[in-house]
Design a protein that fits this description.
The complex is a heterodimer.
Chain A: H1 2-10, H2 13-37, H3 48-57, H4 59-93, H5 95-110, H6 113-124, H7 128-153, H8 157-165, H9 170-208, H10 217-226, H11 230-259
Helix pairs in contact in A: 3-11, 4-5, 4-7, 4-9, 4-10, 6-7, 6-9, 7-9, 9-10, 9-11, 10-11
Chain B: H1 4-9, E1 13-23, E2 29-39, E3 43-47, H2 54-62, E4 69-74, E5 79-80, E6 83-84, E7 86-89, H3 101-111, H4 116-129, H5 145-157, E8 163-167, H6 175-192, E9 195-200, H7 203-209, E10 212-217, E11 222-228, H8 237-240, H9 243-259
Parallel strand pairs in B: 3-9, 3-10, 7-8, 8-9
Antiparallel strand pairs in B: 1-2, 1-4, 5-6, 10-11
The chains are: A mainly alpha, B alpha/beta.
């Protein structure tokens, strides 16, 4: 069957990476060509080759600010994981806690971060890193909390009965039933949260502006736009994209590692 | 060594339900004054339409559901942590998809704090009993429906319970697989002499398996007939063609039909 054979060669991982990369390369080639043929000035649209050169030439300053963005992202994601999972566990123990606190978590989530950020700046302006951390935490916290809450509630009720039949302690119930049940939900939340942490960190940097002593990639973008250094702007943008892609791939790999053997979302099936 | 029949004949009661009544929070009377003794070593089938309280009765024996009034008396069975040693098999295999077959079977022992090394022999033996020794390292998703059910039975047996409670365990399986599992279950029961309470909605399955069929009716849930099936074990396909089998089946069917509320008959 041609359908079956097509499926096998399309499923090869090397090809699955190569095809999108090739399409990206073609698009960059067209971009490069367009800039040269139309003689578009560098302060409107720099060619990819110019952006690449800028990335290398400005690496020292770019990598330093990139590190700041990464720090914010990882610190806030770590806080979101710890906070989200702990709160979800508390909710699963106490219904009262859940109905009193969950709506407030929702309010925090549905209010656009960009609208709250200036307020955070007013309150915590003296501590720019705290502003960044809080911005990134607010957006990345919720998907972890809500997914873990659903996951902890999704345990098979017959397995719950089995736990009662054998007199499992609350700790055993959590460890042997609730945590494994919630794991796929948590990992789906983590995938979203990792990228939202990056978004939150960048939004926070825009609000704090280039003034602080430690500034991230967004400050570089702002600064470069003031100076019409569009090539450096693109270079910073490329680093943000690369970070997002890396975060996605890393969380995807973690899911495969933890769920690959048993969960429907990660199991490879024969055609 | 006494055979199951002689044990059953000696009429030693393993569990007795006295005036057991269960009313659910929504007002439904699931069980109305149930008086029933379960003889040690006997194979009992509860048969009846949905809503007759057969599963509720089973869950009450297991301690998973409380009674509204009445009592459950036990005699001479091992007690652990204030709980009687029972094995329970659900209608679905109810396995943990993230655990390999042998770790699913090991779960009841693990919950009691038995180490992996100390539980190895019991797990191997239980898997051997249900014929799945070669699949110890498989994940549940790699098994067929019948094999998953066998794992579920092995898990119920791993603690060596003296009473085995089964809640429509083979209802979701195809007929060929069900027949095979029925025969395997009877063979195990003859070897091990547990007390079995088996819930089913199939008249034919109940008569094939049981020493005694407990016929139940709904609204309110109650026992309407007790049918003794005296055919000796081991039973095989020839029993299905015997006149005794046909007689028992027709008596159970008649009791079920007569007990149906007007308008449903």
């Amino acid at each position: 069957m041609s359908g079956a054979s097509r499926k096998t060669w399309l499923d090869h991982w090397l090809l699955r990476a190569a095809i999108p990369i090739a399409i990206g390369a073609v698009a960059m080639g067209c971009w490069e060509l367009l800039v040269h043929v139309k003689e578009i000035p560098e302060y409107i649209l720099p060619a990819p080759s110019v952006i690449g050169k800028t990335l290398v030439a400005e690496w020292d300053s770019l990598s330093a600010v990139w590190l700041v963005t990464l720090q914010t992202m990882f610190a806030s994601l770590g806080l979101a994981v710890v906070g989200g999972v702990l709160l979800a566990m508390l909710f699963s123990v106490s219904r009262l806690l859940e109905i009193s606190l969950f709506p407030h978590a929702v309010v925090l989530q549905v209010t656009p971060l960009i609208a709250i950020a200036p307020l955070i700046m007013v309150w915590l302006g003296d501590y720019p890193f705290l502003v960044l951390l809080l911005c990134a935490f607010i957006v990345s916290f919720f998907p972890i909390l809500s997914n873990t809450v659903v996951g902890l509630k999704s345990a098979d009720h017959n397995l719950g009965d089995l736990m009662r039949l054998y007199r499992a302690s609350p700790w055993q119930r959590l460890r042997f039933l609730l945590v494994p049940t919630a794991l796929p939900y948590f990992l789906a939340g983590l995938k979203i949260a990792a990228n939202l942490a990056l978004v939150g960190a960048v939004v926070g940097e825009f609000v704090v502006g280039p003034g602080g002593d430690k500034t991230g990639l967004a400050s570089t973008i702002l600064e470069s736009s003031f100076r019409l250094d569009i090539a450096k702007m693109f270079a910073a943008l490329a680093l943000i994209s690369a970070t997002g892609i890396a975060a996605y791939l890393a969380t995807h790999a973690l899911s495969q590692l933890l769920l690959g053997a048993w969960h429907e979302s990660a199991v490879r099936r024969d055609a | 060594m006494p055979t199951p029949e002689t044990v059953a004949d000696s009429r030693e009661t393993a569990v007795e339900m006295v005036g057991v009544e269960k009313r659910f929070a929504n007002g439904t009377l699931a069980l109305q004054s149930l008086n029933l003794g379960i003889d040690r070593g006997s194979f009992n089938c509860f048969v009846g339409p949905s809503g007759c309280g057969k599963s509720t009765a089973l869950r009450i024996i297991a301690g998973l559901t409380s009674v509204t009034s009445g009592e459950v008396h036990w005699s001479g069975s091992a007690i652990r942590n204030g709980q009687h040693e029972v094995g329970f098999v659900f209608q679905e295999p109810t396995l943990m998809p993230w655990r390999r077959v042998r770790d699913n079977v090991r779960l009841p022992l693990q919950l009691r704090g038995v180490s992996r090394a100390d539980s190895k022999d019991a797990v191997d033996e239980a898997l051997e009993l249900v014929g799945l020794a070669d699949f110890a390292r498989a994940y549940p998703r790699e098994l067929s429906g019948g094999m998953k059910m066998r794992v579920s039975i092995a898990r119920a047996l791993v603690t060596k319970p003296d009473i085995l409670l089964m809640d429509e365990p083979f209802a979701a399986l195809d007929e060929m697989t069900r027949f095979k599992l029925n025969d395997d279950l009877l063979r195990l029961w003859q070897e091990r002499r547990w007390t079995v309470v088996f819930v089913t909605h199939s008249v034919y399955e109940s008569v094939y398996l049981a020493n005694r069929v407990v016929v139940m009716a709904p609204r309110p849930g109650r026992v309407v007939d007790l049918v003794q099936v005296d055919a000796p074990h081991p039973r095989d396909d020839s029993f299905r063609r015997s006149s005794e089998y046909a007689d028992c089946c027709s008596r159970v069917s008649r009791s079920l039909a007569e007990s149906m509320p007007e308008g449903i008959k």
